[in-house]
């Protein structure tokens, strides 16, 4: 597959005034679920056995817990999450008018905490932020991913695409080399998936805990012997947006279980 240099693609889009994003993506998007063993699929499907549900329950408790100088909880502003948060995770990352850039769901949670509750931002990969993100994402379980691709979000999407196709690290591999060119092949004993992100945050057996999309990106970077970016960096948010765009057609599975 031949790809134009991302910078030329972006310049071409801007010069033409085109804001509608288009590009290669899987004709039949496949969730990482379809690459699991039957035993792990069964674990994910059973809400009583799925270890990720512990984080969903923790997030549900935090939803009702007052925090910060405002003395308010998430529920005080948003009410019943089953209604107010239904579909929210399917739309993120999204452009924030307040911050003037694309942010992901974790950053939106922290934006609410600092701006509305007067509370400190929760650290990335902290149990509380994973819990709230898992709880809110779980409200969209079964809903199709649908991120915006026009307007100010287009440049972020294009940067994410450039990241996806850029070779990096001592192994000189891009995300696409594994998750497009070698889908279904095996890396040691593990099948290579399409790298879809519809189940995040995920409970990963390798980690023995929950992890965010950005933790997974960092793990992949380390696997190709490349320097990782910080969780929450704009580079990873852009990549997360592009991954979500590639995932369109799939439904939210949070909390997913992966190897």
From TrEMBL:
Heterodimer of SoxA and SoxX. Its EC number is 2.8.5.2. It comes from Devosia yakushimensis. InterPro entries: Cyt_c-like_dom, Cyt_c-like_dom_sf, SoxA. Coiled coil: none annotated. Belongs to the SoxA family. It is found in: Periplasm. Keywords: Electron transport, Heme, Iron, Metal-binding, Periplasm, Signal, Transferase, Transport. Residues 54-140 form the Cytochrome c domain. This is SoxAX cytochrome complex subunit A. Pfam families: SoxA-TsdA_cyt-c. It catalyses: S-sulfanyl-L-cysteinyl-[SoxY protein] + thiosulfate + 2 Fe(III)-[cytochrome c] = S-(2-sulfodisulfanyl)-L-cysteinyl-[SoxY protein] + 2 Fe(II)-[cytochrome c] + 2 H(+); L-cysteinyl-[SoxY protein] + thiosulfate + 2 Fe(III)-[cytochrome c] = S-sulfosulfanyl-L-cysteinyl-[SoxY protein] + 2 Fe(II)-[cytochrome c] + 2 H(+).
């Amino acid at each position: 597959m031949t790809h134009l240099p991302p910078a030329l693609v972006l310049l071409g889009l801007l010069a033409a005034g085109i804001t509608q994003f288009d590009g290669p993506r899987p004709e039949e998007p496949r969730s990482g679920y379809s690459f699991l063993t039957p035993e792990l699929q069964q674990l994910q499907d059973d809400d009583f056995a799925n270890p990720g549900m512990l984080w969903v329950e923790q997030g549900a408790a935090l939803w009702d817990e007052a925090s910060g100088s405002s003395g308010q909880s998430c529920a005080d502003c948003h009410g019943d999450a089953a209604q107010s948060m239904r579909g929210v995770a399917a739309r993120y990352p999204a452009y924030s008018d307040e911050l003037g850039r694309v942010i992901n769901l974790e950053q939106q949670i922290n934006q609410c905490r600092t701006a509305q509750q007067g509370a400190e931002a929760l650290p990335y990969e902290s149990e509380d932020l994973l819990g709230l993100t898992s709880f809110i994402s779980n409200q969209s379980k079964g809903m199709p991913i649908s991120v915006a691709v026009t307007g100010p979000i287009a440049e972020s999407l294009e940067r994410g695409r450039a990241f996806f196709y850029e070779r990096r690290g001592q192994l000189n591999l891009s995300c696409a080399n594994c998750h497009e060119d070698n889908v279904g092949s095996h890396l040691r004993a593990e099948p290579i998936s399409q790298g879809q992100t519809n189940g995040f945050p995920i409970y990963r057996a390798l980690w023995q805990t929950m992890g965010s999309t950005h933790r997974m990106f960092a793990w992949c970077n380390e696997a190709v012997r490349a320097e990782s970016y910080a969780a929450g960096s704009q580079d990873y948010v852009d990549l997360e947006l592009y991954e979500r765009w590639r995932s369109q057609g799939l439904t939210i599975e949070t909390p997913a279980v992966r190897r």
